[in-house]
Amino acid sequence: MGGGPSFRPTLRFVGSVDGSRKAELLAGAACLWMPALWDEPFGLTLVEAMMSGTPVLGTRRGALPEIVAEDVGALGDTLEDLVHLRAGIGRLDPTACRAHAIKWFSHRVMAEEYVRVYRHYLSTGALRPGKRMR
Questions:
Q1: For strand 56-59 and strand 73-76, is the pairing parallel, antiparallel, or unpaired?
Q2: Residue 50 belongs to a domain with what CATH number?
Q3: How many distinct structural domains can be found in the chain?
Q4: Tally of CB atoms within 10 A around 114
Q5: What residues are paired with 26 via a beta bridge?
Q6: What confidence tens digit (pLDDT) does each residue in 24-80 have?
Q7: Is 89 domain-assigned?
Q8: 75 sits in which H/E element
Q9: How far, in Å, CA of 39 to CA of 49, rounded?
């Protein structure tokens, strides 16, 4: 074996990927682990995973709680939490993951939200709060 860490025989390190290879790996994954130890400002990898129908398992740091709803993933505070939560991730529906990502993070939705925020700021001089996921 070579090329990176080996956690156990059923897992393999594939290194940096992008494009169609990344989409293929995400779509075939049981979940995306995002054990952020920093205050992640957005979490594009989370949205990419959900667009692929892959649920997310991560920590409650930065923007993760704003992106990951209960029907598309699970969040914990410690490694032990994440290991425990992993057991239930298989019950999540890939279609719900994709629908959530499209509803909140598609290119059209994001562009419309930027326009809404900018218009509000230009007319009032104040930032408007973002929309809450429901």
A1: parallel
A2: 3.40.50.2000
A3: 1
A4: 10
A5: none
A6: 999 999 999 999 899 989 989 999 999 999 999 999 999 999 999 999 999 999 999
A7: yes
A8: strand 73-76
A9: 19
